[in-house]
Amino acid sequence: MKVAVIGDMDVTSGFGLIGVHTRFVATRKSEVEAALSACLDDPAMGVIIMLAPLADMVRESLTRIRNTRVYPLVVEIPGKTAPSHEEDAIARLVGKAVGIPLRGGGLSP
């Protein structure tokens, strides 16, 4: 099962460092739609991690995906302006999803 991330350069680079190979840098709706389509076309795709502000751009599509498909699971993570308590909760969820524990929103030694 593959994991993909759709986000800005910082987010996609960070996920690349922890081993996520399928990464899409997107800032515009058309880029988010193209990345989401590529993920949905891959039968091995199990989890799509997406920045919440980008998810808002394609909310209607995400609702349809969540209502009609079991996989891939779409996980929204907060953007840079999110409160830190949300970031900690998301770091735990993402750590579980990728199998590497994350602490404080980043990798700990």
Commentary on this structure:
- This protein has five helices and four strands.
- The model is unreliable at 105-109 (pLDDT under 50).
- It has helices at 9-17, 29-41, 52-57, 59-68, 84-98, and strands at residues 2-7, 22-25, 45-51, 73-77.
- It has a four-stranded parallel beta sheet with strand order 2-1-3-4, with helices on both faces.
- It has a single domain, classed as 3-Layer(aba) Sandwich (Rossmann fold), CATH 3.40.50.10580.
- The chain is α/β, with parallel strands linked by helices and 109 residues long.
- Strand 1, helix 1 (9-17) and strand 2 (22-25) form a beta-alpha-beta unit.
- The protein is 49% helix and 20% strand.
- Average of pLDDT: 86
Give the SSE order as H and E letters.
Answer: EHEHEHHEH
Largest sheet geometry: 4 strands, parallel
Number of structurally distinct domains: 1
CATH fold-level topology: Rossmann fold
Instruction: Kindly state the number of beta strands.
Output: 4
Q: In CATH, what is the homologous superfamily?
A: ATPase, V1 complex, subunit F
Q: What is the gyration radius calculated from CA atoms?
A: 13 Å
Low-confidence stretches: 105-109
Number of H/I helices: 5
First-last Cα distance: 27 Å
CATH class: Alpha Beta
Shape estimate = globular
- Side by side, the strands of the main sheet go 2-1-3-4
CATH architecture: 3-Layer(aba) Sandwich
The percent range for helix content is: 40-55%
* Structural class by helix and strand composition: alpha/beta
Share of β-strand residues: 15-25%
